[in-house]
Every structure is written in structure tokens, then in C-alpha cells.
Amino acid sequence: MAMRQTPLTCSGHTRPVVDLAFSGITPYGYFLISACKDGKPMLRQGDTGDWIGTFLGHKGAVWGATLNKDATKAATAAADFTAKVWDAVSGDELMTLAHKHIVKTVDFTQDSNYLLTGGQDKLLRIYDLNKPEAEPKEISGHTSGIKKALWCSEDKQILSADDKTVRLWDHATMTEVKSLNFNMSVSSMEYIPEGEILVITYGRSIAFHSAISLDPIKSFEAPATINSASLHPEKEFLVAGGEDFKLYKYDYNSGEELESYKGHFGPIHCVRFSPDGELYASGSEDGTLRLWQTVVGKTYGLWKCVLPEEDSGELAKPKISFPETAEEELEEIAAENSDSIYSSTPEVKA
């Protein structure tokens, strides 16, 4: 029976959402952080999109955000020339790390003791979070602003991307191991520890490389310019989004397009699978995050599959249930915000 994808819309931001990241699975579930040009990164419950809190303190657009594995710390990268580390439980700011230019990317080591940053000054910096007063280690070599920097190979190596180059660095020697050059701008990069896979998007291409050798594995072409792609934890599917407002889902093995959905009202800037692979989140120019089911119709989070009457001819569709929240109250909120795609109050709606 055909099922209709019903995404959850997470409002609250007032400018484009440019980055998002999930935590690992914790005893309290998993969590989602979003970076936005409004300068106010937000933390949400990962499986429902429920707003938990907003990190206040940046004085410019936030370009990058991440959570550590157990969701106890958050880090953000911003246009105010700082990276900040936060207590993700209390929301308190733990430290501000001053830079000389716009910071675009942040990433924790697995033990949360070190933070990697990169930005417009073309330098990679490694901060010892147990010694915040100490000067960071710096790695130079990029020839343009750094868009993304990630720890890999159990924190023994670093992957970083600037405009048209992806570089692999050795952490111990702080030297470049290998680089990849592209004929157009690299729009995103994702590292998959299980299998050491690197996902790179540029133009309409979604490319998969070995994170150890940077050797190519395979690549797919999409119908539109792609800004971000994410590989399912089981490596069954990949999802991608970009300039045509649509999300595409592909079979990783064959490259066949399985589904495509349009839900955003602007280009999609970022997309990531949840750690359990049950959903994927997208962030857009329209100021919203949306949560999409990997397997449409499965009862999970706020989705509950309701089958129609057999003779009605209707498509089966997931029903969105809101635990401990009055449906009338949600309808009132939706009515109040119906004249705008933005909402001043963080909410989740179908």
C-alpha cells in the first residue's frame, strides 16, 4: 500500500538554517543541534524535533554546530570571529575561543577533550579543552577559507575541505597526507566512521571516497545542484538536498533514485541521518528544519501509522501524534503563524 511522507516541521529560527548535527544515542535518546544565520543555535530532541533550548551568546551568524557523542557538550562556529563550547545540559557557555576571522566549522574528538576548528583564515586549530588558556595547535596549508573540518580514524587524522580541495592530515605530525582537487566548489563533507567512508558533494555530484586513502569508491549524479548529502548508518540509502528545494533518496548500492520529496520553501543547505537511521533531518533557506521518515509509515517518534478504510481509496498516511499536548492548542499556534513561514516560538508540526 502506498504511503505518503509527512515531515515534521521544526520552527523557531528566523534566518536560514545552514548546519545541523546529531549526537550519538544516549540513555535519554538522541539530540539534534542546528546552526542558523540568526546567531541562535538550537537544541532539540532528535526523534521528535521538540525544542529543548537555545544557546544565547553569539553576536553574528552561526555557521557550524556540533554535539559530542553523549550530548553533554555543544560547540558552535560563528561570524563573530569566535567558536564557543557549551554545556548542552544546562545551556551555559563554558568557553569562548577567539579567532582572527569568521569560524565555519567545529568538531569534538571522541573523548570530548579536544576541539577542531576551521574558517576563513585558512587555518585548522586544535584546542585542548582541559587547558582553555593554552594557545591552540595550528595547521596551515589550505589556500582558501575552510568550510568543513572533521576528526577521522579514531582522531588520528583530520579531514578538511576548502573551496575546491579536500585534504587529509596526520594529527601526530600535523602534516598533509594527501589531497583531492575538484573542478568546482565543494559544498559539503560527511565522515562515516563505520567503514571509513567520506561523502563529498560538489555541483550535482555526490562522491564517496575512502577516508583513509581518499581513493574513490563511487559517485552519483543528481538532477540539481546538491548542497549536502548523508549516508544511512547501514549504508543502504543516501539522502541529498540542494537548490531545487527537494530531498532525494537513493539506493547506495545501485544509485537508483528511490524517492524525492518537496517540503521546504527554499534551497536545502544541510541534511543528516539520525544515529539510528530511522529519520533524516534537513535545514533550509526557509528558516525551518524538517524531519523525514526513512521508512514511510513506520510508527516512530511522533509518527503513528493509521490505515484508512479499505474501500475509501485513500492513501495510507502517518498520523502525527503530540503526546501531552492539546491538539486544539497546536491548531491555535498554527493559525497564528499561518501568515508566515517563520515562527517566533519553537514548535513541531506536521
From TrEMBL:
GO biological process assignments: negative regulation of transforming growth factor beta receptor signaling pathway; spliceosomal snRNP assembly
Keyword Repeat: yes
Molecular function as annotated in GO: kinase activity; RNA binding
SMART domains: WD40
WD repeats: 55-96, 96-137, 139-179, 261-293
CC terms in the record's Gene Ontology section: SMN complex
Biased composition (Polar residues): 337-350
Disordered, as annotated region: 326-350
Keywords associated with the record: Kinase, mRNA processing, mRNA splicing, Receptor, Repeat, Transferase, WD repeat
Family: Belongs to the WD repeat STRAP family.
Protein name: Serine-threonine kinase receptor-associated protein
Species of origin: Odocoileus virginianus (White-tailed deer)
